[in-house]
Amino acid sequence: MSTEGQERLHAAARRFRAMAPPVDDWSLRLVDDSAETLSVRRGVVEPIRLSRDSGVMVTVIEAGGVGYGATTDLSAAGLRVATERARAWARRTADLQLVDPAQLPRVTAHGTYRSPLAKPWHSLDTGVKLERLLDLALRMKIHDAIIDWSAGLAYHDRETLLVSASGGEIRQRQHVLMPWLRAVANRGSETQIRSFGPDLGGQGGLERLDILELDQQPERLAGEALALLDAPECPTGTMDLLLMPGQMTLQIHESIGHPLELDRILGDERNYAGTSFVTADMFGTYRYGSDLLNVTFDPGVPGELASYAYDDAGTRAERDWLIRDGILLRGLGGAASQARSGLPGVACARASSWNRPPIDRMANLNLEPGDSSLEELVGRIERGVLMDTNRSWSIDDSRNKFQFGCEMAWRIEDGERRGLVRNPGYRGISSGFWRSLAGVGNAESFRVMGVGTCGKGEPNQMIAVGHASPPCLFRNVAVFGGGGS
Amino acid sequence: MRAILERAAGHLQELLDPGEAFTAYLEAEESDFLRLNGSRVRQAGHVSQAHLNLDLIRGGRHVEAALALSGEPDTDAAALRSLLTELRGILPLVPEDPYLSYATEAVRSHDIRPGRLPEADAVLATLRQSADGLDLVGHWAAGNLYRGFAGSSGQWHWFQAESFTFDWSLYQRADKAVKGRYAGSDWDADTLAARIAMARSQLDIMARPALVLPPGAYRVYLAPAALAEILGVVAWQGFGLRALRTRQTPLLRLADRETSLNPSVELVEHCAGGTAPRFGPQGFPLPERVPLIEAGLFRESLADARSGREYGVPVNAAAERPASLEMGAGHLAIADAAALVGDGLLISDLWYGNLSDHARCAVTGMTRYACLRVEDGEMRAPVEPMRFDVSLYDLLGDGLLDLTQERELLTNTSTYEQRSTSTALLPGALVGDFPLTL
Lengths: 485, 438
Fold this sequence. Notes:
The complex is a heterodimer.
Chain A: H1 3-18, E1 25-41, E2 44-45, E3 48-62, E4 65-71, H2 76-92, E5 110-114, H3 126-138, E6 146-164, E7 169-187, E8 190-196, E9 202-203, H4 207-211, H5 218-230, E10 237-243, H6 245-257, H7 262-265, E11 295-297, E12 320-324, E13 327-328, H8 335-341, E14 349-350, E15 359-360, E16 364-367, H9 374-379, E17 383-395, E18 401-413, E19 416-421, E20 425-429, H10 430-433, E21 437-440, E22 447-456, E23 461-469, E24 472-480
Chain B: H1 2-15, E1 20-37, E2 40-58, E3 61-68, H2 73-90, E4 108-113, H3 120-130, E5 135-151, E6 156-173, E7 176-184, H4 189-206, E8 216-222, H5 224-238, H6 241-245, H7 252-255, E9 267-270, E10 289-294, E11 297-298, H8 305-311, E12 324-327, H9 337-341, E13 344-357, E14 362-375, E15 378-382, E16 387-391, H10 392-398, E17 400-411, E18 423-436
Helix pairs in contact in B: 1-2, 3-4
């Protein structure tokens, strides 16, 4: 995001204020997003890709209706056309509004947010970054059976400016870095993949590469991919399951995050992402998990993927407990959903970009650490498996019946790791699964990760969310392996 | 939008230095979006967007960039000048790309598909009348879609289509609902009203107490939309040339001829039969048909420009997954589905599919919407959502009893970043042992 880009947003906001329409309320959300992706594959530098995107969404409340108009044209003429389209939608839908516009939050706050940033993306030139990627990728080519090896870096610099008729003005700038490594091993019809990232994306600059110890990963990944070719299939049966943070991320996302979204509970998502097994009467009393389950909405974790100071509806974001000692307390819903449902929520009305309206989303959703070391958790397993790195995910439209697969696992017997197993999977039902939580890793084992591609909404929106978790132990889970060669 | 690309191409041509070339691929749309819950409006608005995908080339080096264009000539010209300066600064830092591939023949094409779209007020009027008293949740998306390509060697391709999709669910209670779809380019209020009325009539059976099925293998009829979910998961990587050559396709055993599907299975990427543009982002025109599976055997892969160069085969796809998938018809009549099932399930939709075992090309997912228990050839009651986990080699191998003679054109309603242009033309399938696991 250049100074030029910032000025473009502020100039558009000034133009709009000078021609603001005579409506009951309006807000303007402007986004300027610069991105760059570098990648190498099999020793070849893939095309470098830059992205420069700027646009605005005008939202108006008029005559009892609400409408939006979004455009890449930030000129006075473009803003005028977008405004007229927003007004037309507001007027024509006034008698059909699901939500009373009076319930919608007004943007009145003034504030700023900026990601932590120690080593800016441009502090290293492109050639140096490419050389580093080529080296990382080459270090994965340790055997003829490694048939595809790649490394990449994706960087985003996004400025969002939210202004309103009520005088609010919120400026937020997020720097996000997502590195990845990937090794593919094959023998005959058996192919195994080990990856690092992009679930390790986070806010910040190139300092994240050191934090993530990217340089220490290539040989390990390739070695694990090779070892998986010769590993036995994951055992099948009901047994203990120890999930590492690389899988806990997905488990939290699908079977805590999505079910707690208030817009699902209110029915908005029923035609697409689905509804929820959680109902309004459960908040405050429902036992979501064992006493060990503690989950927070925490937009203030430095470097976590979805940290911010205000959501896209202009509500100040703060840390809140969603589940404490296993009891469900609060949902994931912004001010509008809270008003509609009368339920407690958090500041999580978010939009994927300027061209989509805010909806209830996860942001940073974290499972708080307990007091067990990883080895203590392993030691408590008589017969089970340890799984890491999500590979496959599927869950029903109420976010209840799930089946997930991982890239790799270890068989555990009598409190010790006995060997690598391949194609691990497990299935369960959210409403009972979390009650089988029997051990939670300590702060030392806690990892901050995220999901870069959470899809939801109509029109569809893809957004990045942060998840942090220690390893967690679950009892009596249905585990299985593949039926391959 | 066409003028935006023409102006951009003109500017780029003027700004090129000797030895430079460019390709420019425009993705743009003017879209109305109307989101409904409880037959009322949740969110409504309009999005106007244009993004130019530029590749600046000098010899074997190149850099790509996506740029939002405003449509305002001076603003866009300045943005392009600034971007070119930035890209020229990067070019010397990148090595020559051995897989650089773009169209160099000065081919021109125009594909303009006018439609008959309604005024937004007419859509709302139909909904007010037809959905009265119903719990309708859904999404209307309509307007012009544009794709264009311009190259410095004089290539020009233009695709423009007026289209709409209306994807909705009628809820009877909790998670019990009937799915509805109406998509095309020629709007007809009576057609939508009739489809909503038909869905309304199906709510009666959804009102019956839902059955809880024990896991096991069931004889099922998969409606075209249900089959589309499974094929969509497999096709995500299944037919791509890069996935094949790096042994990552879930169809590896089929491609290696270690196994085969039922000889009646025919799958083709039929570009000429869908609603997607017939050129790719690098300007290559696409063939009318690419046979993917013939007589149950793996035939060809889909190769985009980059893979085509890497593996030395002609370009036959914009991206390495189908955009206009067609499956050959069978012999059954959809109207006979319940009778053909006899004792089993009618499944209208499957959902949230994902590969569960690559080596077996196994897909897991959930039943959703009208999944009905059939006994003695009669529809008895809805069932609670069930998880399936099935190998494609079983489903479309020994497990496939027959396909329907009717096929349904399913328009992709995806709107991630932009409205999709993909379609699938599929029959329904009668399957012998469909495994439900949870």
